[in-house]
């Protein structure tokens, strides 16, 4: 299986999946899933002539499970290891939800010399936590409640979490397979990583990172997102990134990479070709 070994403190192995040839597009998954969430996008992008690389964040999927390093500075270093060890250039980075934080922190720390474009898809930047200088944010009690739920009964928490992720009736027939698949992916993750990533995406401020974006950027978000609301994230990221393109997917929930896959794929391909 294709893997890279990271270096430095809290080193680990990162698993990645690669399909297609052409300009590289690196896909960064959301919490608490893995690279497998990108099935539709991997197919659509590779068939359109792109080299798609989707990797598992440390602690998730088939990557290593270290006991530390679940913070965005380390995640950005991990992403840089993927890009440099595979010697990727002219890269389009796409991050979904928590993965959008990796895109932002990577650019903030490493710049854009190896990049051509960026995509923030239902992403957590610029800053989710409500503070005195971020009054539009989410109250800390929300993240504390998530963390308590995962610590007390991770499996039960995830069972309750995913219907809101996709805006599905948990007792209905629609989406039963998608809910089962998502829980299976999430169950596979390290319990410690699942916990500590809540702290990371809930408390990390990406506003300074967004100020360093100097490449074409797509911000795509569902207007029915109950997990990372458009008003808190996508609209504000668009306002902070000069020249960015905002696409609001009507009726789409947080997990629109699955529920609105064809529409999202079309937006991504149009942006990549523009």
Automatic annotation (TrEMBL):
Gene3D superfamilies for this protein: alpha/beta hydrolase (3.40.50.1820)
Gene Ontology MF terms in the entry: hydrolase activity
Lineage: superkingdom: Bacteria
Record's keyword terms, sorted: Hydrolase
Any matching Pfam family: Abhydrolase_1
Matching PANTHER family: HYDROLASE, ALPHA/BETA FOLD FAMILY PROTEIN (PTHR43433), NON-HEME CHLOROPEROXIDASE-RELATED (PTHR43433:SF4)
Protein's recorded name: Alpha/beta hydrolase
Native source species: Massilia phyllostachyos
